[in-house]
Each structure stands twice: as C-alpha cells, then as structure tokens.
Amino acid sequence: MTDEVGARTIADFGEQWTAYSNTSGFFGSADLFNDFLGPLLIDRNLQGRSVAEIGSGTGRFVNVMAAAGAAQIIALEPSQAMCVLREKTTPFRDRITYLETTGDRLPPSGDVDYVISIGVIHHIPDPEPVMAAAFRALKHGGRCVIWLYGREGNGLYLFVVHSLRMFTRALPHRALELVVALLYPLLRAYMALCRVLPLPLAEYMRRVLLPLTPAARRLVIYDQLNPAYAKYYTRAEAHALMAKAGFADIQLHHRHGISWTVAGTRP
User: How would you write the pLDDT of the chain (267 residues) with one tens digit per residue?
Assistant: First the structure.
C-alpha cells in the first residue's frame, strides 16, 4: 500500500509541476528559499559548495542555488516534471547533474556538502530510506537541511484541509482547478483581514502569500489539495527523522509558527 501511495503521489506532482511550471517572481526567489530554510541555511552559504536537492520539481530552487554560486548541484526529480526541470535550469546546466529518480537512490558518494529538500519529505510515506541516502551522500561534516509541514500551530487549518482533501485528492486536474478557482476569493479575503488583524496564519499570509502573484497563490491552494499523501510533523517527529538516520548537531526552527526547518550534520 505504501508503494502504491508513493507512486500516486509522484504522479500527482508530475502532473502539477508540468501544468504549473512558472517559477518567476517571489515564488522562485532567493528570498523565498531563505524564508524556507533560514536561519539554518541561506543561499550564500552554498557558494563554492556541492549540493544535492531531493525533489527539485520545476527547478526553481536549483536556479537559486546555482545563482548563489553552488559549484555542483545534483537535482533529483522522479516525476514527469523532469522535462520542466531541465528546461527551466538550462542557463546553469553545466553545473547540474539530473537524476530522474527518488531520494532513496541518491548516490552514496560521501562527498556532498549539503543535501536539501524543501516540501518533499512530508509527502513520502516511508522517509527513512531517503534520510539514510542523504546521510550516505554527505561528506563528514556535511549538512542535511529539510523543510517539513508542521502539526503545531495548525489545528484549525488541518481540520479544514483534511476535510477538503477527502475528496479533492481524487479529482482529475481540471476539476481540481475549478475547486481552486472557487476557493481563491476566500483566501484573498482572508489575506486582506490578516493585514490588520492577528488571525491564525497571519504572519505566513503577510510574509509568504501576499508577495506571490495571484497565479502562484492559486498554485499554493492546488498544492495543498492535490497530493495523495501528506504528513504534518510534530517537533519530536521532525527531530527523530534526523536522529534515526544518524545525524548529529540537530537544529530545528519553527518557521512562521506552523512548519519545521530541520538541519543535521553527518559526524
């Protein structure tokens, strides 16, 4: 069952990233990359370093890392979005190794400075083989930095999104687009209220969603309703994910009070 859900999740994201391939503006910016991973990692830390990204999607953050001066990037993407990834990262392709495979098959080279994954691990039903592969790919002293959905601070949101997902995750692409179109005015109204009121998720709305284009905001809604599998991690679970793989010096940052940025070092 786990393999079936995992395969379906990969297919879902392949369809999503080929349909929504625009990486321009804040959505594909260094500012958003740093918002996801800072303060544990920011783009300028990557200058001259070798990096592997698990789940590169459209390549929006591959471009950020390359522009920051990463010396070599291994971009893993198991879905049909690989064609989009190659196209969008063409200016930096001489520094990119493209691997159309899952994170558990990251080569165990032992010479990578950073393994990064943003918004991917929480969509993997069994993430332990992926974390073990990240550990083996890193050099001693290398860092793994991941961003995960968080459970803390998300009580009301989780009730709403889980209720919606019960039927939206089974919808075909066009039908889900229609649902997104119906929901978007509600999001826009909530964002307007968050400008002046301390509502739940207000900081996230102001700092992340408001700078996005309307098209990118609709993609965010689609992204939340589409995947076959999504796990929301507690702080203890996020820490354990790194610890079980053998990482040391584990650090956690509660991003906007609703998600977890986690970093660990290969001893």
Answer: 578 888 999 999 999 999 999 989 999 999 999 999 999 999 999 999 999 999 999 999 999 999 999 999 999 999 999 999 999 999 999 999 999 999 999 999 999 999 999 999 999 999 999 999 999 999 999 999 999 999 999 988 999 999 999 999 999 999 999 999 999 999 999 999 999 999 999 999 999 999 999 999 999 999 999 998 999 999 999 999 999 999 999 999 999 999 999 999 999
- Distances in whole angstroms, Cα of residue 110 to Cα of each of 98, 104, 139, 245: 18, 14, 5, 15
Query: How many C-beta atoms lie closer than 10 Å to residue 15's C-beta?
Result: 17
Rounded distance, CA 79 to CA 174, Å? 19
Instruction: Please tell me whether the overall predicted TM-score, pTM, comes out greater than 0.70 for this model.
Output: yes
Q: How many alpha carbons fall within 13 Å on the CB side of residue 261?
A: 19
Question: Among the residues of the chain, which ranges form H helices?
Answer: 2-19, 30-37, 60-67, 82-88, 128-137, 155-168, 173-194, 202-204, 214-225, 235-244
Give the CATH number of domain 2-151+230-265; options: 3.30.499.10, 3.40.50.150, 3.30.360.10, 1.20.58.220: 3.40.50.150
From the list 132, 127, 157, 156, the residue with the least C-alpha distance to 229 is 127
Q: Which residues, other chains included, contact 13 with Cβ-Cβ below 8 Å and sequence gap of 6+?
A: 57, 79, 81, 123, 226, 227
H or E stretch covering 44: none
- Spell out the domain ranges in the chain: 2-151+230-265, 155-225
C-beta of residue 121 within 8 angstroms of C-beta of residue 127: yes
